[in-house]
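input
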Amino acid sequence: MASSLNNHLSTTEPDNKKVRVKRHITNILLVTIGFILSPLTWWNDLVINIPLAYLFSLPFSIIHEALFLPTFVIGYWLTNLLGFLLMHWGGERLFYKEGANISILRSLFISLIYSIIVIILVLLGWLAPPTEYLQYLRQ
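output
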């Protein structure tokens, strides 16, 4: 009886370890993709968010030209928000127990706080638009 229990435990343990490793890698990917989408990187707007916002707004501009600008701005904000949410979800699952209960409302609230912090950093001049970094590199 004891040997069958030990055999059962030894066969299920690697599976549990594989599942934990897969979850860990998934959460690291969520944080990484979230960081790339978030406004915390200086290059993401030009390379990632603006092209995604453009693609988001294209179908609306086909319907009516006047919809291009508002949907472009909405798409841009959605990419930034998605970045914050992915960082939050992946980070929370990395640092807390596996079964962490993640509330969408709580995540949106935290993302709003992150957005306010980024806005304050821009207004204080601590975080500059990408064009300023490019001008600095040219000098």
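quick obs: The first helix runs from residue 2 to 37.
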